[in-house]
């Protein structure tokens, strides 16, 4: 059949010439290449000191956000746990008492909120499912550890502190940001 | 009893022993660094500055590992294997002339532990015994991979020793002596044997790769086919001994190559610079070690460049290429000697 692309190549075992049979020129050629690589730029990133630049929408360790007044946004509805394909999220809900309004935004809150980082596949479905804009994935990396039990992150590790809030504005699409400007919706009040 | 001569020899033996071990230790570090650099990586750089303490960390790791002796192994031979490998690896350093003579308080001391008049033969004898360490270890493990590795090692060593010996015969014909000291001395200045015996050198260096079980001839321990080859069943410091012996062998092979073909402790214009004989001797040691380090680097360079041979290719190269080539080299050397003498 006629070749349409003109890229066809006949491969086969062709007889080696005498110089090729000596192998030495080929060996020296190879040695030249390896020597050249010895002085070329190294691709290693020495991790803790040096970090790779992340994408703005990198999906790393989760954060549980607080609202502008510093109250936890999570209402323990459990939608993230339901959405989670890896069954990594568990929580225990509790009712807000009088005087705790500055701590919890809604009447119900998560007394315990745990994500098993070994189960988590960092898909971001919890973020999608959350109606309260509480859980977000950030560009932080879950650090390594020696014990499996250390990878079950509770609220102590997940909830952002008041002193150093985690910026997640880059993670929100323009549509979401537009939606949030509409103060008529209860969601945004 | 303790004559200055004896004290000097003891100091020399101890220092050569220490230097050999330290160089072998840092060869492991060098190997990993060079491998990394050639693959565009950084290599070990966490233990100490530039990872300089890595060999110590490896050593501590080796000692701390659990020591396993398989139930079905032959225990005496199992322990004897690595001991033999290590001992024979260290033995050759006795006859390498590490420098010319050094003058302390009016007496001349030779920087060579002992000058055997059959030096080259001694090197061969010791490297031949070296295969016993591998053979015994591989056989005593009672493991098919170990045994296959050991068989490969022995047949490979026997095959390549012939070509190596024939290459050396041509060298001996042109130098007229078996003593390494005299071979070194004859290469004073820049009269290195490499210019007299280029073909012999090529055969010799290929065979040394095979004798030290280094890539591309590392078939006795090829991981992809034989797990670990002859040391599959070994653990802890016994394994460390085998791996360490390989690096010592590499160091010694580099020293032998430098001595036989690259002038040993000689360096160009050594007698024209008007230095005292002691300064020349010390500079000579420095130059010898520079040559040795280059060859160690060369061994590693080859290892990280060329893939492993297939076993039949290895045998074909040994028997049908190197041995005829070595015999041709002998004939050529003989013809040239005959022509120049007439």
Protein described:
The complex is a heterodimer of chains A (189) and B (342). Chain A is α+β, with helices and mostly antiparallel strands and 189 residues long. Chain A has a domain at 62-188: Alpha-Beta Plaits, CATH 3.30.70.3270. Helix content of chain A is 22%, strand content 13%. In chain A, strands 2-3-5 form a three-stranded antiparallel sheet. A two-stranded antiparallel ribbon of chain A has the order 1-4. The radius of gyration of chain A is 28 Å and the shape is elongated. The model of chain A has no long low-confidence stretch (mean pLDDT 85). With 342 residues, chain B is an all-alpha fold. Chain B has one domain (69-100, 115-341). Chain B contains twelve helices and two strands, in the order αααββααααααααα. In chain B, a hairpin with a 2-residue loop joins β1 (101-104) and β2 (107-110). In chain B, α2 packs across α10 (236-261) and α8 (198-211) runs antiparallel to α12 (311-341). Chain B starts with a helix and ends with a helix. The model of chain B has no long low-confidence stretch (mean pLDDT 84). Classes of the chains: A alpha+beta (189), B mainly alpha (342). The interface between A and B is medium-sized, with 14 and 13 residues.
Keywords:
heterodimer; A: 189 residues; alpha+beta; Alpha-Beta Plaits; 3-stranded antiparallel sheet; two-stranded antiparallel sheet; 6 helices; B: 342 residues; mainly alpha; 12 helices; globular
What number is the mean pLDDT of chain A? 85
Backbone shape of chain B = globular
Strand content of chain A: 5-15%
Oligomer: heterodimer
Strands in their spatial order, largest beta sheet of chain A: 2-3-5
Instruction: Please state how the strands of the largest beta sheet of chain B are arranged side by side.
Output: 1-2
Q: How far from one another are the termini of chain A?
A: 71 Å
Largest sheet of chain B: 2 strands, antiparallel
Derived from helix and strand composition plus strand pairing, the structural class of chain B reads mainly alpha
CATH topology of the domain at 62-188 in chain A: Alpha-Beta Plaits
Any idea of the CATH class of the domain at 62-188 in chain A?
Answer: Alpha Beta
Task: Report the radius of gyration of chain B as a whole number of Å.
Answer: 21 Å
Secondary structure class of chain A reads alpha+beta
Question: Considering DSSP H and I runs of 4 or more, what fraction of the residues of chain B is helical?
Answer: 55-70%
Mean pLDDT of chain B: 84
């Amino acid at each position: 059949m006629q070749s349409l692309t003109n890229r066809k190549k006949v491969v086969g075992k062709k007889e080696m010439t005498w110089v090729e049979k000596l192998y030495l020129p080929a060996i020296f050629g190879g040695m030249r290449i390896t020597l050249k690589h010895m002085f070329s730029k190294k691709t290693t990133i020495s991790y803790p000191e040096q970090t790779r630049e992340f994408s703005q929408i990198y999906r790393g360790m989760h954060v549980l956000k607080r609202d502008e007044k510093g109250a936890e946004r999570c209402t323990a509805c459990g939608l993230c746990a339901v959405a989670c394909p890896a069954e990594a999220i568990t929580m225990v809900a509790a009712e807000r008492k009088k005087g705790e309004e500055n701590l919890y935004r809604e009447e119900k809150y998560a007394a315990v909120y745990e994500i098993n980082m070994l189960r988590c596949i960092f898909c971001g479905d919890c973020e999608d499912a959350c109606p309260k804009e509480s859980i977000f994935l950030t560009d932080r990396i879950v650090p390594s550890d020696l014990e499996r039990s250390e990878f079950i992150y509770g609220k102590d590790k997940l909830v952002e502190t008041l002193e150093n809030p985690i910026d997640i504005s880059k993670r929100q699409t323009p549509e979401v940001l537009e939606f949030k400007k509409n103060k008529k919706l209860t969601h945004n009040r | 009893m303790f004559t200055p001569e004896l004290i000097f020899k003891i100091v020399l033996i101890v220092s050569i022993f220490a230097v050999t071990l330290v160089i072998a230790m840092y060869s492991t570090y060098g190997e990993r660094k060079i491998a990394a650099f050639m693959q565009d990586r950084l290599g070990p750089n966490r233990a100490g500055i530039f990872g300089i303490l890595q060999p110590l960390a490896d050593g501590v790791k080796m000692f701390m590992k659990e020591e396993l002796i398989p139930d079905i192994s032959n225990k005496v031979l199992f322990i004897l294997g690595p001991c033999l490998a290590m001992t024979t690896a260290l033995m050759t350093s006795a006859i390498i002339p590490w420098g010319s003579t050094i003058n302390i308080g009016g007496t001349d001391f030779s920087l060579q532990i002992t000058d055997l008049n059959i030096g080259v033969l001694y090197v061969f004898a010791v490297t031949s015994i070296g295969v016993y360490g591998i053979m015994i270890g591989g056989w005593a493990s009672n493991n098919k991979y170990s045994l296959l590795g050991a068989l490969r090692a022995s047949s490979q060593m026997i095959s390549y020793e012939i070509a190596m010996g024939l290459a050396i015969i041509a060298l001996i014909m042109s130098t007229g002596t078996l003593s390494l000291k005299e071979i070194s001395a004859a290469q004073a200045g820049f009269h290195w044997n490499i210019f007299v015996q280029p073909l012999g050198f090529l055969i010799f260096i290929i065979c040394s790769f095979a004798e030290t079980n280094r890539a591309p001839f590392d078939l006795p321990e090829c991981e992809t086919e034989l797990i670990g080859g002859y040391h599959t069943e070994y653990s802890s410091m016994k394994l460390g001994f085998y791996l360490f012996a390989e690096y010592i062998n590499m160091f010694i092979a580099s020293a032998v190559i430098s001595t036989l073909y690259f002038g040993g402790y000689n360096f160009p214009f050594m007698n024209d610079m008007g230095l005292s004989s002691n300064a020349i001797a010390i500079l000579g040691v420095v130059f010898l070690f520079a040559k040795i380090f280059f060859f160690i680097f060369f061994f590693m360079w080859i290892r990280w460049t060329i893939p492993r041979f297939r076993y039949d290719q290895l045998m074909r190269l040994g028997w049908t290429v190197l041995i005829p080539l070595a015999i041709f080299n002998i004939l050529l050397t003989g013809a040239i000697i005959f022509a120049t003498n007439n």
